[in-house]
Amino acid sequence: MAAPCTRMANRPLWQFITNVRRTGLKHTGVRQISLSSACRAATQTRSKTEGVASPWKLYGAVCLQRLPVISQERNPIEDQFAELMHQMELERSLLSDHEQRLLEDSELMTRKQADNYDSDEEEADYGGQETITAQDQEDTWEQKLKHFQPALRDRGRSQRGCGTPLGSVERCLGDSLVLLVQQTVGKQTIWLLPQAQWEAGETLRQTAERSLSSLPEADFKATFLGNTPCGVYRYTFPKEVRTERCVGAKVFFFKAFLSSGSASQKQPFLWVKKTELQGYLKPAYLEKVDRFILKL
User: Fold this and answer.
1) DSSP-assigned beta bridge partners for residue 59
2) 199 pLDDT more than 60
3) What is the predicted pLDDT for the residue at 264?
């Protein structure tokens, strides 16, 4: 039994296939497939697929965030902890030069009040110069402190709980802000993240970069975080503008951080916090956007 199997294994592959065809494979009802016909069918299918235009428009959008410029205000628990740490540091620290001078001045006042005080010796020690005590320095520092005006955390007039107008990039300096722009979809004017329609020959990230650079009267410099979209949102157009060849749009979002730049406050721009997005974005749109916006 092993000998026939050995002879069959040693035969060439083409000879084995020829023998199989002769043994009646063509009489079993199995359809023989031609390689040329299969390639021709695949080519026709691909050409038909390429000829059909997608009913969805592609858009590239950018989620531009301005990171906090200053530290956030402390809550009551953080205030208590900071006070505790300050007290511990004060108890473990050594006396500073100013505190040493305060002790020396206190000893000098004690000697001046004594009966055996000799003023000539004190004048000889200081070379006849008028001494400036540590308390005099503290009084001078307090006068300078009264004229010092620290920078405001929110610059400008109060509006919606923050100091500056909503279109200014300098509002709410202790929070992270997201840029929103006003766009017209159909007959509606809504707030969205900056977006632009994809054009042939460019990547989706390049489309998102173009949506930011094409904003009117704005000069925003941003650092994009990778070439992969962080989210996608699909929506259908209103009935008045919807057609069979144009059903809706697919928006691919890219994340970016603001490096520098400014914009005219006359343009429909908004810099809002993550907690304020629900007042401007549609619920379905907000559900997609809220997933990848960092609350820093």
Assistant:
1) 197, 251
2) yes
3) 62
H/E element holding 188?
strand 188-192
Task: Confirm if 69 and 154 have CB atoms less than 8 A apart.
Answer: no
- pLDDT higher than 80, residue 128: no
User: Above 80 in pLDDT, residue 209?
Assistant: yes
Q: What are phi and psi of 139, to 5 degrees?
A: -65, -40
pTM (predicted TM-score): 0.60
| β partners of residue 57 | 249
List Cβ neighbours of 133 (8 Å cut-off, separation of 6 or more): 101, 105
pLDDT of residue 35: 45
Encode pLDDT of 148-169 as tens digits: 887 676 654 444 444 567 778 8
Give the per-residue pLDDT at 157. Answer: 45
Distances (CA, A) of 81 to 73, 85, 91, 127: 14, 6, 15, 48
User: Encoding tokens for residue 33?
Assistant: 């497939």
- List the alpha helices (DSSP H) in 164-228: 204-213
Q: List b or e across 69-86, with b for residues whose CB sees 16 or more CB atoms inside 10 angstroms.
A: eeeeeeeeeeeeeeeeee
Cβ neighbors of 191 (< 8 A, separation 6 or more) are 180, 181, 182, 183, 270, 280, 281
Distance CA 134, CA 53 (A): 83
Asked if 61 contacts 229 with a C-beta cutoff of 8 angstroms, the reply is no
Q: Residue 212: which of 177, 276, 275, 263 has the closest Cα?
A: 263
